Amino acid sequence: MDRTRLNLSRWQRRLSRLRLLLAASLPNRCMICHQRVVLPQRGICLTCLDAGLYSSPSCLGCGRTMSLQSAYCGTCMTTQPLKVVAPASYHQGLGETVAAIKYQGQLAGLSPIVQALVRRIHTLVAAEAISLPQVLLPVPLHPRRLRQRGFNQAYLIACELGQALSIPVLPDALVRISDTPPQAGLTGKQRRRNLAGAFSLSHGFEYQRVALVDDVVTTGTTAMEIAKLLEGRYIQVQVWCLARAEAPHLIDQ
Known about the structure:
Elements: H1 3-25, H2 46-52, H3 74-77, E1 84-85, H4 90-104, H5 110-126, E2 135-138, H6 143-149, H7 153-165, E3 174-176, H8 188-195, E4 199-201, E5 209-217, H9 221-231, E6 236-244
Parallel strand pairs: 1-6, 2-5, 5-6
Antiparallel strand pairs: 3-4
Helix pairs in contact: 5-7
C-alpha cells in the first residue's frame, strides 16, 4: 500500500471513531418518534425499531415474502442471484433513518440497526440460508468523496458487525479507483456504465468467502459490479446491509 492510501486509511479510522464517540454523547432521543430512549438502547426506540424491521421471512434474492425462511423463493431458486442480507425494507421500513445516517451524519441510529442485522444474520445461519464469511469488505468511497463526506458509513457498519460477530474487517483490500457521479436518478444501464471498472481488489487477497457491507442496496448495481470482480477470482460473495429496496411489484406482497 502506498503512503497516500495508508495515511488516508488512518485518517478515516480516527475520524470514524471520533464521530461515533460524538454520536454517543448526544441526547438519547429516538430519531423517528423523538421520544426519550432508555439505556442501553440508543438512537432508535424499540417500538420504532420493531415497526421498521421485516416481520416475515424474505427471499435473499429479491426480497419477496416467504412462509418459511430459506435462501431463495421459487422464482430466484432457478437463477440464484446475489444474496442480500438486510433486517428491513428501505421503502417500508427504516429507509429515512438509513438515509439520515448517510447524508446527515446522524450516527445514533447506526448501532440499533446493526444489532438488528446481527440478529438477522444469526437467524439465516441457523436456517442454513447463509454461512458466515471469512472477512468483511466495506464498499469503499473514492478518496475525494471520503474527504467531502468525512466518513464512510459502510466502514462504520462493517466495524460494528465485525466486533459483534468476531469477523475481521479489511477496509483497504477493496479500492474505488474511479470517482464516479452519484447513482441516484440514473437508469439501470447508466448505473452499470457509471460503475464499469470502478473498483479493484488487492493482488494478495487470499480469502474465498466474503461479505460486502453497505448501508443500503437499491438496484444492486454497485454490489453486482463488485461481486463480478470478486467472482472473477473465484470468491464467494454475499451482501450485508441495513436495508434493501425491493422491486416495486414486491412491496405490497
